[in-house]
Design goal:
globular; alpha/beta; single chain; four-stranded parallel β-sheet
Amino acid sequence: MSGTVAEAAAWLRRGGLVAFPTETVYGLGADALNAAAVERIFAVKGRPKTSPLIVHADSAAMARELAREWPPEAEELARRYWPGPLTLVVRKHPRIPGVVTAGLDTVGLRVPAHPLAQELIRVAGLPVAAPSANRFSQLSPTTAEHVRASLGKDVDYILDGGPAAVGIESVVLSVAEKPAVLFRPGVIPAPELEEVTGPLRQPSGAGVGPDASPGMRPRHYRPATPLYLGHVPARGRGFRLLIQGAAEGAALRMPADPRGYAAILYAVLHSADGQGFDWIAVEMPPDTPAWAGVLDRLRRAAT
């Protein structure tokens, strides 16, 4: 169902699951301080409990209350980019249940830019733990209809805020250690972040135990249709995403700027998924810092 912020907030306060819009993608939210409610997120998504969740706040002030340590870099990055598509990983406050963070001593915090997301958190009066509102590892939702198609009646309430403007998930940046670690790229280029943090470190390979951050699985953000990055399969009926050249036949010319491309990427892939193609072939975008978020999603989605 779709409805009002007040109704959605009431569901959160009584331990329900609410799908809500952010500027990146739609989130599947629960009261971040209610362990039983958070457990339902993992059950509905089919998400392993070794994959931590991001906690959404309505302001930097609320986010700081959820941190045990708040380094100067966090304060400056929050000033520059919040509300917006940046998740900061810091040492967590003990009141955040371990199920939220996969047992880690750190938590990812974000202040979303979507006005309905901010209002929902403010009216509910609590921080909201929320991964993307879809089955685990599948294509992220950028509209309320995508949420309905993926989760059906397993979500208690859907707050419809229209299409997501950014279109891919937030940057995840850890300032809990030095040098800072870029766990997941997004639409904010790394050189901009390094103006605050200094040179960023890339995460080490996956090991035993919980993921250090959301979105680190090698296969993620995947459409149901097999996706090929950089080449076109020889057989079957397919759909192509191009940046250069004319888009003829079953093809679409995508925006040549990374933010424009990101804004429609998941919506285009959702649409292609519903048309019965045997494959989707994507022209390789430029391998530059500005395109890193798009390339990361495509590489994890590729067959």
